[in-house]
Amino acid sequence: MSSEDYTKEVRTKTAYLLSDGRRAISCALDIIYVWDLDSGSKLTGFSVDNYIQVMRVIPDTDRIVIGDGGGRVMALDVPA
Amino acid sequence: MDYKLLPGDREVSRIGSVLALASSVLEAHHEQLEMQLCGRLVGNEGRDIADLLTQIRQRSSSLLLPPNNGFLTHPGSGAHNKNYELCVNAIAPFGGGRWALSGSNDSFLRLWDLESGIELLRFAGHAKAILAVAVSLDGRRAISASEDRTLRIWDLGSGAELNRFETGTYPIDVVEILRDGRRALLGHEGVPEIWNIETGERLHRFANGGERLVAVLSQPNGICTVSDSTHSSPVWGGLTQTKISVRNLETGEERVFEKPSGGVTSIAFAADGVRALVGGYHYMGRYGSTRPTLELVDITTGNYS
Asked: How far apart are CA B235 and CA B228, in angstroms?
């Protein structure tokens, strides 16, 4: 699977498998993507207001926490 | 929606302001319309906007949802912060995702309630940017590492600094508390070390052999380090390959597999213990520019899908 949708030459900062084992979540620059691992296709993408400096997933949940370049800490839930 | 036809309607005007605020994102990613509306309207909406958000959530099954409060800049709240001093370098969520501790460039640790988005407590003490944070399994203590080359132990309930240790010549940028609560994995310059965080004693320093520490994974059976190194592969006609090593520091188990090209930035294992998600990059052209990659590998065969 290659992330064609990124528009800039960057690196995947962090990636996690979601709890169903069939989807993944990744981030690069200021974009978060959710992927379908069977097809390799992007399910959704979401741009935040600042570049994402750090992303963590809560173990055994589909909640992620991100910290950005402007000092914000945010939790996001990925629906099943 | 031609929101300019109803200038006296505050909620419609608010939606118009949100669209203007999100215009640069929507120009490149029009499919994000619903999430941009949710992220910038949620939290202080009137009845009509609440109805709109309910409809969006019912219709869209793939939205990333904030727990309660808005998570993007709202109209009228001023430009979003570009202050590099506040940049968040590290986060340690705990309490099942109810709280998180963050460390920032401004040298403060912050304790957050993730449901409300409210900052509960601010810990002062470090003299320079905080690079890494971790919270003990019982959620009572935290550890932080900073560019000021100190490691500090904190009481999470009160924010009091309990202890501090000098870390030496280089700042530590990776911290993970081991399951016994007495030891921690620290990393600097890509080299992992084990410290006793009750005494400040360095117990072990791992030889890196040209490897670079990429990530630390907290697995059910112990803390793992992920390192990568490049070498010329006889299998791939002498082309440069990336070897990925995953070592469990508590069981001694090691797994090694290869990435055909480029580098690694993160890795996550599936519950089956067979598949691993490898985030990284490929090099593009001669100027060192890179393209992000996300690959799934069967670590028993080394095959990528």
From this structure: 18
